[in-house]
Design a protein that fits this description.
The protein folds into 2 domains: 64 residues, no CATH class; 110 residues, 3-Layer(aba) Sandwich (Glutaredoxin), CATH 3.40.30. Helix content is 45%, strand content 12%. The radius of gyration is 27 Å and the shape is elongated. The C terminus is likely disordered. Belongs to the phosducin family. Keywords: Cell projection, Cilium, Cytoplasm, Nucleus, Phosphoprotein, Sensory transduction, Vision. This is Phosducin. Its main location: other.
Length: 228
């Protein structure tokens, strides 16, 4: 808690407008945000007396500042964003990658981070469902940036005879170089007209997508339950 309190004090000091806080109060916040740098180690008595006085001044400072709640909301927002950034690991993508040949296909699977899910759409122009699936995967790639979404034409894989028009569109899902799922003629799982939300629900049924990323926190608008 001491580290959190000092971090909050420092954040408040940095976020204050230059004219909104008196010099004395600014100095109080500065001292409180770096309590171990205020005095030398040899000046123990002075440091202890200053710290006792500081607790009273801190209370008065917090009580006097009406805008403190707004500042606290901004601080919460920053903490949530920092926490989410620390919890998000591994490479990020955010787009549907076009693979040009079989070599790139193998590299996308075998040389990827072991924690990354790789979803490959094998398609051909003019095949029913392929265009709609590419559009859906483009949307999902933006929503799930930790998942690597790829597409490749069957004729470019080097194994076109294995991907005839009867099995397209095909979705292959890999992780750690291992094939997790293989969905042939996957568009048959949807209605004639389908969208990203339908593909998302389908992949979630098989547990192939991670949790959605936290949305950007707007203007610090969140209640106590969100913070918890």
């Amino acid at each position: 808690p001491k580290g959190v309190i000092n971090d909050w004090r420092k954040f408040k000091l940095e976020s204050e407008d230059g004219d909104s806080l008196s010099l004395s109060k600014k100095e109080i916040l500065r001292q409180m945000s770096s309590p171990h740098k205020s005095f030398s180690k040899d000046d123990k008595d002075t440091r202890e007396r200053f710290c006792r006085k500081m607790s009273m001044q801190e209370y008065e400072l917090i009580q006097d500042e009406k805008e403190d709640e707004t500042c606290l909301q901004k601080y919460r927002k920053r903490c949530m964003q920092d926490m989410h950034q620390r919890l998000s690991f591994g490479p990020k993508y955010g787009y549907l990658c076009e693979l040009q040949n079989g070599e790139q296909f193998l590299e996308a699977i075998e040389k990827e981070h072991k924690s990354t899910t790789v979803i490959v759409h094998i398609y051909e122009d003019g095949i029913k469902g392929c265009e709609a699936l590419n559009s859906s995967l483009t949307c999902l790639a933006a929503e799930y940036s930790t998942v690597k979404f790829c597409k490749i034409k069957a004729s470019s894989t080097g194994a076109g005879d294995r991907f005839s028009s009867e099995v397209l569109p095909t979705l292959l899902v890999y992780k750690g170089g291992e094939l997790l799922s293989n969905f042939i003629s996957v568009s048959e799982q949807f209605s004639e007209e389908f969208f990203a939300v339908d593909v998302e629900s389908f992949l979630n049924e098989y547990g192939l997508l991670p949790e959605r990323e936290l949305p950007a926190l707007e203007n610090g608008n969140m209640d106590e339950q969100d913070v918890e």
